Amino acid sequence: GNSDTGGSGGDDGTITLGFSQVGAESGWRTANTTSIKEAATEAGIDLKFDDAQQKQENQIKAIRNFIQQKVDVIAFSPVVESGWDTVLKEAKDAKIPVILTDRSVDSADKSLYKTFLGSDFVKEGRLAGEWLVQKEQSATGPVNIVELQGTTGSAPANDRKKGFAEAIAANPNLKIVASQSGDFTRAGGKQVMEQFLKANPKIDVLFAHNDDMGLGALEAITAAGKVPGKDITIITVDAVKDGMQALADGKFNFIAECSPLLGPQLMDLVKKVHAGESVPARIETQETTFTQEQAKEALPNRKY
Amino acid sequence: MTGSQPVLTMTGISKSFPGVRALDGVDFRLLPGEVHALMGENGAGKSTLIKVLTGVYRTDHGAVTLGGAEVSFSGPMQATAAGVSTVYQEVNLCTNLSVAENIFIGREPRRLGAVRWAEMRRRARALLARLDLDIDVNAQLGTYSLAVQQMVAIARAIDVEARVLVLDEPTSSLDAGEVAQLFRVMRQLRDDGLAILFVTHFLDQVYEIADRITVLRNGRLVGEYPTSELPQLGLVEKMIGKELRALERLDEQSRHDAAAPVEGAPLLDVRELGRRSAVARFDLTIHEGEVVGLAGLLGSGRTEVARLLFGADRADHGSVRVHGTPTSLRNPVAAIGHGIGFCSENRRAEGIVGELSVRENIILALQAARGWLRPVPRRRQDELVDRYVRALSIRPADPDIPVGNLSGGNQQKVLLARWLITEPRLLILDEPTRGIDIGAKTEIQRLVAQLSDGGMAVLFVSAELEEVLRLSHRIAVMRDREMVAQLTNDQSVDADRIMQTIAAGAGHEEVPS
Amino acid sequence: MTTLSLLAARTRSRLPRRHVPVLATLVLLLVLYGVGVSQYRAFSNIQVVFNVFIDNGFLLVVAVGMTFVILTGGIDLSVGSVVAMTAMVSAFLLREGLPAALVLIIALLIGPTLGFLMGCVIHFFDIQPFIVTLAGMFFARGMCTFISGSSIPITDGFWTRMSQQRIGNPSGNFVSISVLIAFAVVAVAAYTLAYTRLGRNVYAIGGNSQSALLMGLPVGRTRIAVYTISGLCAAIGGILLSFYTLSGAPLIGVGMELDVIAAVVIGGTVLTGGSGYVFGTVLGVLVLGVIQTLITFDGSLNSWWTKIVIGGLLFAFILLQRLIGIRYK
Amino acid sequence: MSDPKAYRALTTHRLFWPVVVLVGMLAANTVYRPGFLSVQMRDGHLYGSLVDILRLSAPLILVALGMTLVIATGGIDLSVGSLCAISGAIACLYISRQPDQNSVGGVLTALALGLGVALVLGAWNGVLVAVIGIQPIIATLILMVAGRGLAQLITEGQILTINSGPYKAIGVGHLLTLPLAIFLALAAALLVAAVTRRTALGLIIESVGGNAQASRLAGIRSGRITFLVYVISAACAAVAGFMMTANVSSADGNAAGLWVELDAILAVVIGGTSLAGGRFSLGGTILGALLIQTLTTTVYAMNISPQTSLLFKAVVVIAVCLIQAPGFRARFTRRRAPAAGPTPVSEQPKEQVPA
Ligand SMILES: Nc1ncnc2c1ncn2[C@@H]1O[C@H](COP(=O)(O)OP(=O)(O)OP(=O)(O)O)[C@@H](O)[C@H]1O
Ligand SMILES: Nc1ncnc2c1ncn2[C@@H]1O[C@H](COP(=O)(O)OP(=O)(O)OP(=O)(O)O)[C@@H](O)[C@H]1O
Ligand SMILES: [Mg+2]
Ligand SMILES: [Mg+2]
């Protein structure tokens, strides 16, 4: 076929972007999708969207089909880090540039993709941990932490756990006494927290890998007759609207943001990559952390 | 059969099921080159003895020797390998496979491990020809009637290089011609030195083929007798355990002289009823209190007629009137609504619900007719079930055991009871006495006569011509899926006459209805 | 002469009846493909068809194994997890530095072993296959996360070659080695079912296992064999998946068992056993693959509409299949 | 045992072994953490792990009840998880649109809406299976896939949070110091039991599942029965969906009821109902559901690492099956107690003729 810039969309000058999303497994993910769709419309980019329903196989299939359709640029949020070399090589051979969003891949051959745009899960865990170390600096006795992990085996769960563990290693008083998977869901968070509360008489801190599990745990804590945010310090990741609300209400104590609003940045990159401009190999999204005060300020202008 | 060594001995065999002692110290022996009949009432333990022999059940006590060496089969596979070839009571074949496969599966002709399909079909055809059966060996077995399936099962068993051939009620669905053919083959095999164990409830067949007889009663051995030394009446007494003038009573029931009650409007009147590729269009009228017999050879379409009249299959042509009102028998529910009941010949596939208890099986049709919202009150259930368990002497008489645990004949009685309690106006009985012992058979025949005297109409289908002749007012004759004649059952009609009718095929004296 | 024509008429009328479900599926699949071609320009590209095979090679292999199990009237829920476990074990062992050949052997042994054990439990203790294989599913998935919580990349030369080798025109239309392996498995399975005793016993047991037992067939052995075969196919599928993704990931193939069962059933195999063909299973896998391709090509559906449309297409397909089946009955 | 007969009757009861496993699991928990069984009074209601197990198993019990009937007819319903999500989403969406989320009338309307839609979808399943004759697994798979999408369509992929006291009560409210949810599940169980066992419905379902062909010839309209059980299953799933969403006061189209169909089928099978259809046991199903929930809770309570928890579950599930399987126990006991010696020759008279 036509191997230059030529794509099916190239005929009329618009750029065609094939985007493979992980799925719609959380509110965060949906916000991410919405952001990308809106930004594409705004930037006049023809978006081919595919939902992989949390399956790597489906993403690989989608990328293959994008290659067949000769899109101009391919972007995707990998379900897992490894296993992309073969299909990315096919994309490279077809001279279609690839952009990774949200999560990176561990491919040794860095030429397989142009750039990575997204957040660093390890860093989010670390930020959460560092804040806790800061807060408990003066603690003399042991501080008991319980952790609500995301889906076992998923990248954010692994990385946030890792980052958090690294950070709290700074203070030997900080100790994770129980750690269970809440599957990133409210129901899961609640159910696990109920048992934590019964099994551990003294819980000082809860670290949840996302807001939803934290929100579920809130109910369990309240039902156990404790005051969230006071009796138990709650730290979460994501900063979705309900989470921010809880933070502003003083029920959470700290949130490390993981922003889903990658759309505009992604579209910029797509244009640059398509035009053949050089782009940095790694771009981290603008992310911040929120304390209760910051949340109160930020809440009115949050988009999701 | 002089002092030769038994090829098979079973000594002190006992087998208990939860709550039932099916076999209690039974001895049995089988000589090479003999046909040995195993006799007993329904539930006496015949099938259990056979299943113990072939390793389907594990014995509680007792020993089995085959060719002098003690054996203990862990299953039919081993038994077959050791030279015991068996046809079990219910047709145990795979209806989803072709006829040829059913005959040869497990010992298919192969080359380099690959099944030789063409060769298999050829041999199947040859084998069936030996039994005088001409069917498409490529067709699914399930498309054939139960009788054909029974023949296929027999074909499967006689093809094996075996020392012992076990036939558990192989003739229950067969008509006279097929039985004769089977007996020819059996004699041939016997003369080749094969030992044949044969179970049947037809006394005539026993006396025709068996060399010796072993009788079981209630799981115990009664004795072993040369056929020539045991007269029929003696055999019946040994089986039942008391003197009974069953056979005499049986003869009294003949309908030869009873005139058909043709007065009044017909109960069921069908015109030109038919179904493509099943049965040709036929007219049939049945009056209240009338017993109409349906005679014909294997595969002649009797079952198809019965099914059409019950709406089990849908007719694609013809009209139906019930009590003079035009209606249609779309499905069984519609037929039941008109007071028609149907007892299928294939009790295992279309009759009993094996997991459910005897009680539940008996009230099933009555309950279905009442609708699920109005359960039959427990007291009434007990009353009905009790009555029929006694009337048909269903054994064991415990209504709460799963019907699947009953012996074949007793299952058949349960099915009959199911329909009798619905008090239908027309009862279609397809081979109702299949596998039923002589005592119960008399009982059922008496019941049919009694019910028809009470005004119930009966369509009686049976492979046993005598039975049809004895019970029917009128006999419709089937041939090649066509109703070729309807005869009034008067003195002039006998088995020969019916066979002639079938052979001639054309309509003899059509009886105006 | 008359007999001949009669015979011909009979074969003509009988042959399709048995094959109608499969033929109907084939026709509908072609219609589905035709819809794609008429809607999307790039769909007519032959590579699209090849990609369906490349992308579903492992699914096909696993579905072939499942066909055996379902034909006996059983079910094997463990396949998705066994696939993942095989890939995971391979990746782990390769990372530990074991030679590729040894890894391949070990990986190919685990699945059948687990299948064999499950078959034994099902047969000897008479426990429902559903529950036994569900436990097997938990076990295999548990092994995945037990081995590693995160995905393990594979860098081994052999694996990479198998993964990236293109057969055909490397810059034009090509298939992967996995596709050839999958075809080989299909061919062997079809032969086994049609021409070996094991295969015929499988059908017999599915038809009526009680009868099969009384007919003196090796019911226990066959039943254990089909779960072992299913385990083997899942293991091969796992290897193919590790070729496909060049990694082992603990969560891969979650819910794959449902896709596989769906493929088998869409291909005309009856869940109660006794009737169906491997070729039907191939069609079933292709149907799922083409539906997915159609949706990717469309590219305008959001996540939930994707699911609804998949369900809708599945419904339309099965309904038509069923209606054609009834018509020809 | 003092009374061997009573002992036998007890051990051969079909629910004996599941109960043993359940008790064993609770005992193991108590050994691990002595306070596990303790139940305290807190804020006027009972509080403790046992209460949690009861409350959390309520939705599973509901779904499994409906599933039992479906399975008894020889079918299977994979769509229950999606139906849970749909009914919950509809109810939450309706409530979230209300000016006053706490109005009881509004909540009741929401429940009626959710239930109504679920009934329609159940009828859809029923038609596919009973009228069109599609294999149940594939017929319900359609709704399993598409239903998830529908649920997400309703919530627009977001987690819909509501703040409604009356609705929340379905999930976490209390009655007589016990969770309301368990009363609801119990009521549903009693209702299903009454409908199936007080009428002839149960018998007819078992008959259809045991031998469909024979049932048809006995005059049972098996199509209607099949249709009905899918509708009942959908209704049960809908109520379970209300509970799941009320438990966390939010509807999550993606996660609500995810994989509950597998748990429900497992509960039914553990309860002794065969997947081939026929006899069913509602009591067994409830016990199975309790067992599964206890297993999940045990994983959390014993803090078994998430990486190994599935292995743990696998071991327990297989243990439950083995211990329940007569085949397994028979082998086990036979090996220990070899068959009794030969019996004395029976004394009944025998006639024998020379051969
Ligand atoms: N699987 C079983 N479970 C429990 N009881 C059984 C089982 N099989 C047979 N029985 C019982 O054992 C007894 C003997 O049955 P069997 O089938 O051997 O009788 P039979 O002599 O063959 O009778 P028929 O002439 O009716 O076939 C009967 O009382 C029957 O109820
Ligand atoms: N030569 C044949 N070719 C095809 N089908 C046959 C043939 N012979 C018999 N059949 C089968 O026989 C059936 C028609 O006979 P039906 O079942 O009514 O027999 P029947 O008269 O009741 O005799 P029986 O029950 O003793 O076989 C059909 O279902 C058909 O499948
Ligand atoms: Mg018998
Ligand atoms: Mg017949």
UniProtKB/TrEMBL annotation, chain B:
InterPro entries: AAA+_ATPase, ABC_carbohydrate_import_ATPase, ABC_transporter-like_ATP-bd, ABC_transporter-like_CS, P-loop_NTPase. It is a peripheral membrane protein. It is found in: Cell membrane. GO terms for molecular function: ATP binding; ATP hydrolysis activity. Pfam families: ABC_tran. SUPFAM superfamilies: P-loop containing nucleoside triphosphate hydrolases. One of its GO terms (cellular component) is plasma membrane. Residues 8-243, 262-505 form the ABC transporter domain. Coiled coil: none annotated. Keywords: ATP-binding, Cell membrane, Membrane, Nucleotide-binding, Repeat, Sugar transport, Translocase, Transport. Its main location: membrane. This is Simple sugar transport system ATP-binding protein. It comes from Micromonospora chaiyaphumensis. The lineage of its organism: Bacteria, Bacillati, Actinomycetota, Actinomycetes, Micromonosporales.
Automatic annotation (TrEMBL), chain C:
Its main location: membrane. It comes from the Bacteria. The keyword Lipid biosynthesis does not apply. It is found in: Cell membrane. GO terms for cellular component: plasma membrane. GO terms for molecular function: transmembrane transporter activity. PANTHER family: ABC TRANSPORTER PERMEASE PROTEIN YPHD-RELATED-RELATED, INNER MEMBRANE ABC TRANSPORTER PERMEASE PROTEIN YJFF. The chain crosses the membrane at residues 20-36, 48-71, 101-125, 131-154, 174-194, 224-244, 277-297, 304-324. Pfam families: BPD_transp_2 (PF02653). This is Simple sugar transport system permease protein. Keywords: Cell membrane, Membrane, Sugar transport, Transmembrane, Transmembrane helix, Transport. InterPro entries: ABC_transp_permease. NCBIfam families: PRK11618.1. It is a multi-pass membrane protein.
Automatic annotation (TrEMBL), chain D:
Pfam families: BPD_transp_2. The chain crosses the membrane at residues 15-32, 53-72, 103-124, 130-151, 172-194, 225-244, 256-275, 282-304, 310-328. One of its GO terms (molecular function) is transmembrane transporter activity. It is found in: Cell membrane. It is a multi-pass membrane protein. It comes from the Bacteria. InterPro entries: ABC_transp_permease. One of its GO terms (cellular component) is plasma membrane. Its main location: membrane. Keywords: Cell membrane, Membrane, Sugar transport, Transmembrane, Transmembrane helix, Transport. This is Simple sugar transport system permease protein.
